[in-house]
Amino acid sequence: MNNRKKSYVAVLLVLAILVSIWAFYPSGSSEVRSVQAMADFAAVTGSGGDDGGYDAYVKAHSAAKRPDQVIRIEGESFTQTDGPGFEVVHPSGETAVLTPESGSISWNVPIEQAGLYNIRIRYLPVEGKSSAIERGLTINQQLPFKGADLVTFDRVWGNRDDKIGRDDRGNELRPSQVEKPIWQVESVTDRSGYYDEPYLFYFDKGNQSVTLTALREPMAIDYIELYQEEALKTYEEIKSDYSTEGLQPVKDQYTLIQAEDAVYKSSPTLYPVSDRSSPTVIPYDVSKIRINTIGGLNWKLPGQWIEWEFEAPEDGLYQIALKEKQDQLRGVFATRSLTIDGKVPFKEMKRIPFEFSRDWSMYVLGEDEPYLFHLTQGKHRIRMTVSLGELAPLIQTIESSVLQLNEMYRKILMITSNSPDPYRDYQLEKRIPEMAEVFRKQAETIQSVADYLEQATGEQSDKVAILHTMVKQLQEMAERPDTVANRLEAFKTNVGGLGTWILTVREQPLTLDYLVVSSPDHKLPRADASFLQVVKHEAGALTASYTEDYDSIGNTGKQKRSTTVWITTGRDQAQVLKNLIDDSFTPKSGISVNLKLVPANILLPATLAGEGPDVAMQIGEDVPVNYAMRGAAADLSKFADYNEVASRFRDSGLVPYEYDGGVYALPEQQSFPMLFYRKDILKELNLEPPQTWQDIYNMISVLQKHNMEFYLPIEAANASLVPNPTFSMLLYQNGGEFYRDGGRKSALDSEISMDAFKKWTQFYTSYKFPLLADFPNRFRTGEMPIGIADYTTYNMLTVLAPEIKGLWEFTMVPGTEKNGTIHHEVASHTTGVMMLEGARDQEAAWEFMKWWTDKDTQIAYGREMEGLMGEAARYPTANVEALEELPWPVKDYRNLENQWKWVRGIPQVPGGYFTGRHLDNAFRKVVNASENPREALSDYLLYINDEIAVKRKEFNLPEQ
């Protein structure tokens, strides 16, 4: 009876699995590409910051000729340089000029016939900080248009090893990306992707000057050429040429190129990846990791390219097919351009659209009537580049709309403030006469973008929903101007949504499994899996989930010496670290590392239970000293080479880890505040970035007159144990300290501290600074055109606010003037790596810590993380030399370095966690309950000193 019941259960279980697979099984054959060929959308831009743009420049010179000639200027024939490091070099036996990462270089260009020219440069990337090369271009010392001030030249990357390696469990390892410098010829183009064709530059007749100003990274220049970009023929014209030349399609030819075997890429983020979504990917394993595709979410930004090499067995006409998956952009399409041996074969290859599909598709270029490509016998290279294609003018239009709507929002804000009175009529239509017309015009413009997208893709989607929402609100506000003030918050949210729309649509992800170059009559492989393949794949994956170890990272084999390391961040960070360990630490030291990814809150109970690691990484700065008090952390200063290792960091980075004459951790990351400001808005208000706090007081009235605000950092809740950055600045700049008598008592009862506390609270009581604000977003909209924030905010703004690129900068925080010198002290925040006292082999653990905090390792980790996750993941290393080598623009790094010299660390003492907590309590009491600042701080100082005394007694430390 029991056996019969078990049989019924088994049958029901199998049926349930089959039904679920049937329900979710994607039928790739039913996917129909719905991209419609349409005339290009004409970008609509206005006065919202577009003055001096490329469109206006070309329009101004529309009557100019396009001389059909090539003018070459050799790199070594430069006429003038500004700055050190420029020299004539001979890489690969060729003569060129080396241009460093800063300074400028000029050439004379003899122009026989005035007109518009394209510019291309033959260059060689020189070893630098692994980021793209950036230059500003001027003609006769004048910037021709916005866009020429930031010209990008790619470095070239590839897999370090020819073959993909495997760990000792049979999983393939992501290949490391290394730079592979080669000479390249690149035209000066718009890297934001808005213009398909290279920039045109107008030159007068006679001797003209061309200057390149280095913004980031060095490169060698062989020559600069002025030329005319050749007009592309359509496929029909090329097809006619094939007939004229007697070219015929090849027979029985089939070449499959694995996409992950790309020879070159423009970015280290374009590494091969693993895809286990389908059993049809090649190579495939149901349970093991196989590196079998390339692209995906890493291959999405305009200008990024991947190049493959293959051999054509004979002369003739071939078709090209791609096994691809575009499962990210519903309602829009991903676009690529294609070149063969550096040339676009015909016009249609400038824009290849890839429509949304949940499953893999076999996409033959040309589809129903495949395009044929003429290839000669021998080696060839196919390069595919991310392009915005038809989306470019749409994005450009919305970007212009966002700028104009933000400008209007600021005008309204100046009248209503960000908290309008709902019962007041502000008469906005009279005070801003153009408001209704701007709303009406922008509603029409945004509606035209939504209509074009719907017609082009044949569907409505979330990509047009935000556009329709914005249009509806603008139309209603144009018809009823009296409701604008009450809609201000929703208006700001919707404009922010447009900014997010730009970010989303600019990203064009596409995944490739392989490319097929074949004769037109050759049968192509099936891209989507059959029903039986899916059943086998899902059943195998289910079984493997019980048998495979997916928690361990990388190799798990052990050497004679080993150390156990715990990391508490994400799996990506752990994988990058494990790759570095296997590549450079274990082979050189002979010490194996058992790296485990654990939750942050497990270290304490594990240590108490005697099951803790030898080394704990990426821990808060309050942890090491707390462990040291209890005898659980190892004193690093006892190692003979400690002083040499400590010299890698600034003293401020080590301060939080010093206790009772010992040092109990090494800093990994160190961040500190910087002053961020909008150049465009401060210019409108005739303001300069403040040098001192007095300058801030002077500018507050101007900002508030326009209903704008200055941002000072403040925690939303008082759970933080870190003293407030603003108070720390004011305290340190005036010579104050947090503790005295060797950490036995708080020093916040000093006159300096009382005065700093009073000034800090006055910003909120007298000047009404906001207690809660989303600074990055309000900085983006212009509500807070200036503020102090952690320098890692730079990474967020770079990625999330492309519409204000070039409109903002950061610099040193305002200081306090004493004896003719402005003091810019700030407090830093760190994370550290700590050795536990119970480490089984402390020497092995110390070797790991030295390796991890070393300059080369920190650079490699920082570059890998930025390569893996983009600029938003730029690593704030505490190693002084390593930060200099990370890909910061020169000007920005200098500002960081200047501020870093003024950074102070906050000591950690027994009971010190009460300092930040009660400092915040005293602050809230003053701001919310109108308490006297001195009395409020004095009251809470009693609690702070009591807790310090209690803890010192608990750990048998002298109290006096």
Write structural notes for this entry.
With 960 residues, this protein is an alpha+beta fold. Helices cover 34% and strands 22% of the residues. Strands 1, 3, 4, 6, 11, 12 and 14 form a seven-stranded antiparallel beta sheet that branches. Strands 15, 17, 18, 20, 23, 24 and 26 form a seven-stranded antiparallel beta sheet that branches. A five-stranded antiparallel beta sheet has the order 2-5-13-7-8, with no helix packed on it. A hairpin with a 6-residue loop joins β3 and β4. The protein is globular, with a radius of gyration of 31 Å. Mean pLDDT is 88; it is low at 17-37.
Give the termini distance in whole angstroms: 81 Å
The assigned structural class equals alpha+beta
Low-pLDDT parts are 17-37
What coarse outline follows from CA principal-axis ratios?
Answer: globular
Instruction: Please give the share of residues in helix.
Output: 25-40%
DSSP strand content? 15-25%
Q: Total number of β-strand segments?
A: 43
Rg? 31 Å
Mean pLDDT: 88
